Q: What sequence folds into this?
């Protein structure tokens, strides 16, 4: 029988240190149920910060009534502040905030946050940056979208340099800017961005799981047992480089006539893609477990985008047990060892991408080995670890602000 212990016997050092709760203001112009990588990953981070005992104030544009109904009742564990919003050009299902500096100054004057984190660089994000600096609050930000790289796809090439100048000005006013890969950190540093911190992205490997594969779903796509199904998940838009998917499909179909192509997502290129590949399956926009089942039904995932800062669909496909063919860029370039847990083509080398897809389609044993290794890689991308790194950047910004204020207080008056 173990001896009883008195309270005096307990060693204080054996007890975990209490977690210091912070008041965090998170500003984003997109959030679920909107479907995109920024919205999804920000929701994960907010959940993680909340679990780590922080008080999160979420500031975002009010969504259309249709999406608001999908979102359901406001979260009880997060203080949500809804602002006015306007449709984003070319992205009608998304909203951007409007200038709101005065309202944010009032809000944060009454309830001062320890740090402001800005996820998007639109009008609401710019207002948040100005308000935070007006109140001498520490500010961190995310670099999540390569807006400047979209120019050539939307005939906005002349605006590429001004856009990059704005982004550099925005982020260099922040105490730290989080980027998802080391490659992105180096690229932005070369363009004059300062105080960059690499904070990757996680993936929900319980939701995105090969076990969700459905023979009935594959049959609905016209695929018999043993038929190869290739697919793409994401926005159907020019910046996603989807002509390469069609080229790869045509090359594969020449050797495997029963191969099927599935597009999951929606966007302005849907009609053009359907005209060019009328036999392809267009599954539309999917979410949650339904989206996970669509991934799991694919044998080969094609992702030709060169405009991503990360590309969450890459890790979702890997977690789903898909063999991925992608360019050596963003998440794929960071996580995939070509021929081991996926296949990579040189960035922008479209002929190599097509040849790689044709090779992957023709070697079923190699494809299965790659898919198994991809799943193992994805299972290590835990959102808890990502949230801890995110929290570390916030704490660093707070500590530097506190030190600066202390030093300023110690300086003798003039």
A:
């Amino acid at each position: 029988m173990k001896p009883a212990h008195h309270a005096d016997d307990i060693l204080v050092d054996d007890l975990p240190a209490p977690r210091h709760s912070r008041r965090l203001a998170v500003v984003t112009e997109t959030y679920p149920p909107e479907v995109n990588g920024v919205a999804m990953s920000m929701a994960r981070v907010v959940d993680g910060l909340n679990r780590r005992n922080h008080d999160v104030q979420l500031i975002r544009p009010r969504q259309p009534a249709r999406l608001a109904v999908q979102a359901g009742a406001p979260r009880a564990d997060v203080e949500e502040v809804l602002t006015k919003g306007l449709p984003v050009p070319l992205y009608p299902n998304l909203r951007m905030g409007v200038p709101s500096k005065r309202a944010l100054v009032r809000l944060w004057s009454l309830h001062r946050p320890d740090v402001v984190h800005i996820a998007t660089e639109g009008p609401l994000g710019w207002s948040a940056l100005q308000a935070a600096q007006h109140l001498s609050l520490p500010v961190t930000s995310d670099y999540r979208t390569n807006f400047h790289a979209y120019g050539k796809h939307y005939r906005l090439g002349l605006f590429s340099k001004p856009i990059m100048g704005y982004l550099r000005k925005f982020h260099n006013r922040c105490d730290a800017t989080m980027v998802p890969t080391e490659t992105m950190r180096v690229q932005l540093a070369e363009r004059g961005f300062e105080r960059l911190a690499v904070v990757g992205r996680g993936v929900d490997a319980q939701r995105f799981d090969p076990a969700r594969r459905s023979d009935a779903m594959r049959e609905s796509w016209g695929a018999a047992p043993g038929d190869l199904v290739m697919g793409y998940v994401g926005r159907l838009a020019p910046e996603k480089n989807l002509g390469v998917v069609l080229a790869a499909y045509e090359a594969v179909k020449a050797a495997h006539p029963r191969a099927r192509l599935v597009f999951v997502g929606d966007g302005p290129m849907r009609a053009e893609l359907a005209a060019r590949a009328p036999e392809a399956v267009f599954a539309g926009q999917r979410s949650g477990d339904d989206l996970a089942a669509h991934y799991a039904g694919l044998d080969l995932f094609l992702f030709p985008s060169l405009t991503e800062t990360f590309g969450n669909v890459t890790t979702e496909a890997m977690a789903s047990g898909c063999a991925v063919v992608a360019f050596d860029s963003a998440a794929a370039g960071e996580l995939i060892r070509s021929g081991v847990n996926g296949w990579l083509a040189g960035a922008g080398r479209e002929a190599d991408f097509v040849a790689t897809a044709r090779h992957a389609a023709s070697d079923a044993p190699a494809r299965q080995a790659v898919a198994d290794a991809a799943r193992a890689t994805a299972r290590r991308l835990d959102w808890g670890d990502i949230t801890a790194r995110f929290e570390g950047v916030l704490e660093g910004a707070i500590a530097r602000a506190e030190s600066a204020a202390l030093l300023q207080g110690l300086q003798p008056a003039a």
Observations:
- Residues 17-202+383-410 form a domain with the Rossmann fold fold (CATH 3.40.50.2000).
- The two ends are 71 Å apart (CA to CA).
- The chain has 15 helices and 15 strands.
- The longest strand covers residues 55-61.
